[in-house]
Task: structure prediction
Amino acid sequence: MNWRGKLLTFCKVTGMPVLEPFVRLAAGEDVKEQLVGISKFVLLPALAIALFIGLWSAAAKTIVSDSAQLPSPTATWNAGIELFEMHADQRQADRDAKKEKLTEAVESLAMARGFDELAAKATEEKKSLYAAEAQKNRKRAVLAANYTPSSAPTFIDQIINSLVTVAFGFLIATAIAIPIGVMCGMSPWVNAAMTPFIQVFKPVSPLAWLPIAAVVIIWAYSGTDPEDALFSKAFLTSAATVSLCSLWPTLVNTTFGVASVNQDYLNVARVLKLSWAQQLYKIILPASLPLMFAGLRISLGVGWMVLIAADMLAQNPGLGKFVWDTYQNGSSVSYARITFSVIVIGAIGLVFDRIMICLRNLVSFGDTAPA
Result:
């Protein structure tokens, strides 16, 4: 069956073995064997999650102090629903405010035209007065038409900002790590020169990198009007910290991938008299892509983990700042919202990991790994 093979390939490439038993069951394969797979990939994880929720509920009743209590699963779920409802309410309020401002702009423009008509018919004495009123209403119309809501970012806004920040930092890290990794893999001399830097800087905590990144960015922004800047200082500080912490896995894996290219491929390239660029783009990079993407997968996970701490310290309006501000707030639902944000952070990290596994499997040769 052609559809069976395509679906099984999809399960392997996307790293979702949980779907494979259902595909094989639908294709009429051995029922008992597929039920074993369903028990392994579906029932057992569901049982583990149910056990975890039960232990969580019991702990929520036990861990209680005078000032705080561990939120229950129900309280956490309700807090999450409330956060999404607050986002929807805020967006509706913003839309209503923009609608009112648009109405005000139309009315002001109509008044300006009315004063222009009066000025055209008035005497010289009153013409300047009417013209001034018309100009004032035109300015009011422009301000109202260009009105932008200045409400505080909601939970969804902060999620989006965190995604943009980690993507920006990850792309910068990738742009730095892959070329250096290729050079290290192709030249033992470059590798020897870069090894001390890799070994020294790779284990450095993001909390140590962030102040240095902040100093550099503040220096770069000196004498620049914040309104004219393309990115805010907090955003660049967080993104730079993500880059500095996440580039090392990609660099190391790229180096190893390039260095471990089958020597027979390179010998054939010499026989065919391929240029250095042709060897790089047609042999070395394609052969090292699986290991390179394995490094990118680790780097993205590290970057997402680092971002939360960076947002807290840099006060970049992302998930880290949300967690810190909610903790500082100290309201009755603070810990439930923090717990829900922890689940959201983990879920986004899982999605990132699945995406990178899919990309890695797409460029891998032979059997793809499901993990």
